[in-house]
Write a structure and sequence with these properties.
The complex is a heterodimer of chains A (483) and B (493).
Chain A (H helix, E strand, L loop, with lengths): L3 E4 L2 E14 L38 H13 L7 E2 L1 E5 L9 E5 L8 E6 L5 E13 L3 E3 L8 E3 L6 E7 L6 H18 L11 E10 L9 E6 L2 H20 L7 E6 L4 E7 L9 E2 L6 E2 L2 H9 L5 H12 L3 H8 L2 H11 L4 H18 L11 H12 L5 H14 L3 H8 L7 H14 L1 H8 L5 H12 L6 H12 L1
Parallel strand pairs in A: 12-13
Antiparallel strand pairs in A: 1-2, 2-10, 2-11, 3-16, 4-5, 4-15, 6-7, 7-10, 8-9, 11-12, 13-14
Chain B lengths: L1 H5 L2 H9 L5 H14 L6 E4 L1 H16 L10 E5 L26 H8 L3 E6 L37 H8 L5 E6 L5 H7 L2 E4 L19 E6 L2 H11 L29 E5 L9 H16 L3 E5 L7 H16 L17 H12 L2 H14 L5 H24 L2 E5 L15 H5 L6 H6 L3 E8 L5 E8 L4 H15 L6 H7 L1
Parallel strand pairs in B: 2-3, 2-4, 7-8, 7-9
Antiparallel strand pairs in B: 1-3, 4-6, 5-6, 5-10, 9-11, 10-11
Chain lengths: 483, 493
């Protein structure tokens, strides 16, 4: 169901299409051998080509092309066997060539689709219009000198994939789900690191509103939307702005607007009339890019299992809930970790430990699963100790905390601290007897019908055994002795 | 020593090998000749110190038995080729003082074969022109003089290279040809000029004018010398995506003098209204020479020829308008400050570029603009394909085409300046082969009634420079063109 916004004159439907720019993971730039590493000193990763020195020519990075094919396949899209690089001409100091090499009417990737998961548990398909490769621009620095601007060309020429969606998105939640899903897929594929903070994924959001059933309204394009939160906030702001204008009898201007994350607002950047004429034409320095079907097929074979497939497999194969499965597949290393823990073990128990204990403490300490001091094999070892009754689930939590602190194996910690579960009924019986004799009043009360006191006795026994007593045995003995 | 400057490259290589003279002597002779012909204004930058140093090293290499294919041969380099540590300007004010940190692939190959660089020759700014009258560093003067002794243009855009080779100030030179910029000046200056197939020589390090048309090539005073130069310059370069992965044959070996098995096509569309009678006659003469040598002459048709010039003057400016966007005053070259960024751009580019460059940037910007793109650029690309197909069909009937190189001999400096279209017509016979990416050689074939040289052009299939050299060699032999530019013969007298 479309998400509607209530205005003074009734309900409005929001229509959104997104253009996501994703920096391709590659050692070198789209058309030069310069490094793409983030965070280097300004202008230290600039080749003669990136600086557009006279007579320099672009040479296409084949690895980037493979990454683009991989991405296209990952978003279920058609790979175009012939695509053409075109020049997008405009002047700006951080654009050394005076044109950006991009793809215009013949992109490398054509139509496709991805599925997004919504909070109510439903799944929605969002169409992909196209994806093309293009060069990133450099960076203008306006705060380094009172009267001058500086230019850093490190990013100039880095490869970007621009992924354009159909206007299928209907509100901030869907937009957030779309960009999150896209990010997840790209990270699974290893074609973009998805670090929105570092600018390796950026979104332009096209927003319009209409009365349900009407034709599409005039859209505004919001630039500089650099986090999932900003995507949602900018849509909220823009939808409210547009509805207010329309309800006041005004018209929406087709324009480009800039998201200001400090003021939480969009503001006009340039109108349609001021839009550049980019004078696109095929770049004569580059031949059309021809791909062999065999190459595409070969890359297809290297695709990893993608998030949706993995999620369904986790549900079917391991019997996990949809929620648990979606938590585990959110990051590929997380899913891999879980699978290693779950291998030949109780998968639901493994999922519990990974999600509730491990992710809990990692999130608290702002760590990724790849930083976890407890390796998957070690967590598996802990679960094995629970499964064979060496320790109780409760003790296991203490062992887990110790493992997180020291990185040691569970068995070693249990051994060292003497945490082995007591299953010897004689020893437990002695403690049970002790507890009964120490609490005559409670025994009286329990026998008089206060059933709830049973938990009290269990607690006392566990306490006396330092938690090591086997809970099942404790229950059984207590029941017998108190009856 | 003046004999050294009149020698062919082939003979000079023999002389060097048999120790008749050293590379230093050969180079010094040319440095002296450059000084003596300084009034031609052929160079933007002269590099005699570099030349002598290279020549010394060449002599050492030869002594050690490690001489390369062109070792010790003094050459002039068109100032469109970036040369490491040596100012490279494209004859534009906007690049005045620009010193590249890199060497173009073509010059690097020549130097690797031992060639010596005498200096960087003047050209029409960014290679845009047919008279070398559009250089920021002044006109180049053709060493040839007509009966009225007026200063004549050397042709363009590679006018400095053509003039200095004709004036015996260099044994050969590099040029680039986009629509005729090697062949037309070769014709005007009475020397041989070869534009190979598009993709034969790397464009890496050559300042771009129109990327889909630009192609480096060679000037020399004989067909064989051109072949020797091209052998050194050609070859695949992974740094240029448009350079072809083709083996480079031994071009000089193709000049056998035997053309008995060849069919030579005469394209009827090149017989244009108003063509000077002398040129028509020379063309006829050329066909007879080839026939006498055993070739078969066939009439062929290139029906879209009349659209070639218009097509060229859409595609080339379109590409140029984009290629020249990088000269913005931000990173290198001239910058003229302004109140804000926009004004800095405007000041830099309006003062940095000359009129002809500005004209072509404006034409190019126009034809690529929204609303005009389909009508001009896309249509021009379609016509380009038709022109290429004309050649493909013609080459089903023949092995090479014979045409005049230019519709006139060299004209006086200042002529044709009032009307850009008249200037553009100079390229009418050279542009079609450029559009189709085909090789073309211009060979001096005779003098007009005014005593000025005229060239004939041989065009062949793509990658068949060998046939162009072979046919060119026969024309050279039959024409036995030995006339010297008047400025030289007068000096000698």
């Amino acid at each position: 169901m479309a998400q509607l916004t209530k205005g003074e004159t009734g309900e409005w439907e929001t229509v959104i299409g997104m253009e996501v720019h994703a920096q391709v993971i590659a050692e070198s730039k789209l058309f030069s051998g310069a490094s793409t590493k983030f965070g280097a000193d300004p202008n230290s990763q600039v080749s003669l080509v990136d600086a557009a020195m006279p007579g320099m020519l672009p040479v296409l990075n084949k690895y980037v092309v493979e990454q683009a094919i991989k991405t296209g396949l990952g978003i279920n899209s058609k790979i175009n066997r012939t695509s053409v690089f075109a020049r997008k001409n405009y002047f700006y100091p951080d654009l050394p060539q005076g044109y950006q090499i991009s793809q215009f009417d013949q992109p490398i990737v054509g139509e496709g689709k991805i599925e997004i998961d919504l909070k109510d548990g439903s799944v929605k398909e969002i169409g992909i219009t196209r994806m093309h490769l293009e060069q990133d621009a450099g960076k203008s620095l306006h705060d380094q000198h009172p009267t001058k601007s500086y230019v850093d060309l490190n990013r100039s020429g880095c490869a970007l994939m621009e992924i354009v969606s159909e206007p299928d998105i209907r509100g901030p939640e869907e937009a957030a789900a779309y960009i999150s899903k896209l990010r997840m897929i790209l990270r699974y594929l290893g074609t973009c690191d998805g670090n929105m903070d570092e600018g390796s994924m950026r979104a332009d959001v096209n927003i319009s509103v209409r009365k349900p059933g009407d034709e599409l309204g005039t859209r505004a394009e919001i630039k500089n939307v650099n986090s999932v939160k900003a995507v949602q906030q900018s849509i909220d702001f823009e939808v409210a702005r547009q509805i207010e204008i329309l309800e006041d009898g005004g018209e929406i201007k087709q324009e480009t607007r800039l998201w200001d994350p400090d003021k939480n607002e969009t503001r006009s950047m340039r109108s349609k009339e001021e839009a550049h004429d980019y004078r696109y034409f095929p770049d004569p320095d580059l031949l059309p890019l021809e791909l062999a079907q065999e190459q595409i097929d070969a890359i297809k074979k290297t695709l990893p299992e993608l998030p949706d497939e993995k999620k369904h497999r986790f549900i079917d194969e391991f019997g996990l809930s949809a929620y648990d499965a979606s938590v585990l597949i959110a990051e590929r290393p997380r899913a891999d970790y879980f699978e290693e823990v779950a291998k030949d073990r109780d998968a639901k128990l493994a999922a519990n430990w990974v999600i509730n204990e491990l992710l809990g403490i990692l999130n608290k300490n702002e760590q990724d699963i790849t930083d976890s001091p407890i390796k998957a094999e070690q967590l598996g070892g802990l679960i094995d100790l629970i499964a064979d009754n060496t320790i109780s689930g409760k003790i296991a939590k203490d062992v887990f905390a110790e493992m997180y602190k020291t990185g040691n194996d569970a068995a070693a910690i249990v051994e060292e601290k003497g945490l082995k579960q007591v299953t010897d009924t004689g020893a437990i019986e002695a403690i049970v007897d002790e507890v009964i004799s120490e609490n005559p009043d409670n025994v009286e009360a329990y026998k008089g019908g206060k059933d709830k006191l049973f938990g009290f006795f269990v607690g006392q026994v566990m306490k006396k055994s330092q938690g090591k007593a086997n809970p099942a045995a404790v229950n059984e003995l207590l029941k017998k002795k108190l009856s | 020593m003046s004999d050294l400057t009149h020698m062919s490259i082939a003979d000079a290589l023999k002389g060097l090998e048999s120790k008749d003279f050293t590379a230093v002597e050969l180079t010094q002779a040319h440095i002296d000749a450059m000084a003596a012909t300084k009034d031609l204004n052929a160079f933007v930058t002269e590099t005699p110190e570099i030349a002598l140093k290279q020549a010394e090293e060449s002599d050492k290499r030869r002594e050690a038995g490690k001489a390369g294919a062109l070792d010790g041969i003094p050459l002039a380099i068109k100032d469109l080729f970036c040369t490491e540590g040596v100012q490279t300007t494209a004859s534009s004010h906007i690049l005045e003082g620009f010193i590249p940190q890199y060497e173009s692939t073509v010059t690097a190959k020549l130097f690797a074969d031992g060639a010596v660089m005498l200096g960087k020759t003047s050209l029409d700014e960014f290679a845009m022109g047919s008279g070398n009258t559009h250089s920021y560093f002044g006109n180049v003067i053709n060493p040839w003089k007509g009966s009225d002794a007026k200063d004549l243009v050397p042709g363009g855009s590679s006018g400095g290279s053509a003039a200095i080779v004709a004036a015996r100030g260099a044994m050969g030179a590099t040029g680039t040809d986009t629509g005729g910029s090697i062949r037309q000046p070769a014709s005007f200056c009475g020397i041989t000029g070869m534009k190979p197939t598009y993709g034969r020589c790397s464009r890496w390090g050559v300042i771009s004018f129109a990327s889909s048309l630009d192609q480096p090539g060679a000037f020399a005073r004989s067909v064989e010398d051109c072949a020797l130069l091209l052998n050194s310059m050609a070859g695949h370069d992974p740094k240029d995506s448009t350079s072809a992965q083709k083996d480079v044959p031994n071009f000089a070996a193709a000049i056998t003098g035997d053309i008995k098995d060849l069919k030579i096509g005469i394209p009827k569309e090149y017989r244009m209204d108003g063509m000077p009678e002398e040129i028509a006659k020379l063309w006829q003469q050329g066909a007879e020479w080839l026939k006498d040598s055993g070739a078969e002459i066939v009439d062929v048709s290139l029906p879209h020829t009349k659209y070639a010039l218009a097509t060229y003057y859409i595609i080339a400016p379109a590409e140029a308008s984009s290629n020249l966007a990088r000269y913005d005053g931000v990173r290198y070259g001239q910058r003229v400050e302004g109140e804000d960024l926009r004004e800095m751009y405007e000041n830099t580019r309006s003062q940095g570029f000359g009129d002809e460059v500005k004209r072509r940037i404006m034409i190019g910007t126009y034809v690529l603009s929204a609303g005009y793109y389909d009508a001009y650029y896309i249509k021009a690309q379609k016509v380009r394909r038709l022109i290429s197909e004309d050649f493909t069909k013609a080459f089903e009937q023949c092995d090479a085409l014979l045409t005049p190189t230019a519709p006139s001999a060299a004209f006086a400096i200042g002529e044709n300046e009032d009307d850009p279209i008249k200037m553009y017509l100079n390229d009418v016979f050279t542009v079609p082969a450029s559009i189709a990416g085909l090789p073309g050689i211009s060979v001096p074939a005779g003098l007009d009634s005014n005593g000025l040289p005229l060239g004939l052009q041989v065009i062949t299939k793509a990658w068949d420079e060998e046939t162009a050299f072979r046919v060119g060699g026969v024309i050279e032999e039959k024409a036995s063109f030995t006339a010297l530019p008047q400025t030289l013969s007068q000096k000698a007298a």
